[in-house]
Amino acid sequence: MMRALFQQWRGQDSPLYDRLKEVPLFRDLKKRELKELEGVLQKCTFESGQVVFEQGKPGVGMYVVIAGEVEISQVDQGDQLVLTRVGDGGFFGETALLDDAVRTATAVAVEETEVMFFPRSGLLTLVENRPHLGVKVVMQLSQVIAERLRRANRGLRTAREEVSALQKMNEESE
Fold first, then answer.
1. pTM for this structure?
2. What is the largest CA-CA distance in the chain?
3. What is the residue extent of each domain of the chain?
4. Do the beta carbons of residue 66 and residue 112 sit within 8 Å?
5. What local confidence, expressed as pLDDT, does residue 15 receive?
6. 3-173 has which CATH code?
7. Is the distance from CB of 118 to CB of 40 less than 8 angstroms?
8. Phi, psi of 58 (to 5 degrees)
């Protein structure tokens, strides 16, 4: 089901070029640099309901949604919590590019979904063979992860403030 992403468009611009430029991880890459990713990125198709990856399994790379939608959820104390949905141009599983820790969530295709898979091994190959390009991708990845962490921290702070306000209202009403 996987194949080299740009293989069928060798010698001409890929129809996915504009999509790739919209992905924060690839936004600053030049056309020739995107073409260098040819041997790294792979296109995959998942049917509706098909698991992309499972919570607790090792992470081996990240995914960029080309068409369709993926639901990211987490099982916590037996309850399944939907964290987010990722659609066209969005990406998920990016921390697997930095380490091979287990997945903290499950990703399932909501409908037939086409994704680009960027394996960790591919990033390591880029860093080794094309250090400038590899560092560019890693720096963008670091910025994206840092922004997501800041957003999560703001969300936690807001949730703590709401819980504190509810507790205070409860105490006052007793």
1. 0.79
2. 74
3. 3-173
4. no
5. 61
6. 2.60.120.10
7. yes
8. -60, 140
